[in-house]
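tokens incoming
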């Protein structure tokens, strides 16, 4: 059975491109362009891994993590973000508050994402 990945990013073009590339690698890929959709899909489909953009309008990735933590899902979360000094502060804050499995810096190619997904799934 294929691993289910939920990609969450407000950059729709990036979302579509990564979906195709990851599907070519054998993953079952779901997508959400905002935090509310991500939470609805996560509740219904319970993906193995969520790759979550932290900087989104309306409901941020941190807001999604907050709500996700109360759902009791076994979904592993990989946070995706463009790297800046501000993002390092955010990264430290997120790591203190939530069980994030890994961080990816944008732009991320499918090969790097595939590697990190496999690493995260091997962790106990």
């Amino acid at each position: 059975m294929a691993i289910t990945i939920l990609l969450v990013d407000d950059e729709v073009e990036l979302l579509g491109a990564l979906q195709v590339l990851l599907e070519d690698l054998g993953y079952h890929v779901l997508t959400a362009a905002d935090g509310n959709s991500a939470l609805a899909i996560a509740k219904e489909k319970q993906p193995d891994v969520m790759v979550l953009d932290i900087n989104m309008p309306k409901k941020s990735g941190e807001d999604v993590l907050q709500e996700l933590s109360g759902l009791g899902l076994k979904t592993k979360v990989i946070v995706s973000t463009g790297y800046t000094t501000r993002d390092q502060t955010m990264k430290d804050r997120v790591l203190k508050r939530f069980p994030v499995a890994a961080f990816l810096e944008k732009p991320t190619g499918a090969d790097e994402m595939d590697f990190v997904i496999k690493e995260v799934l091997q962790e106990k």
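note: The first strand starts at residue 4 and ends at 8.
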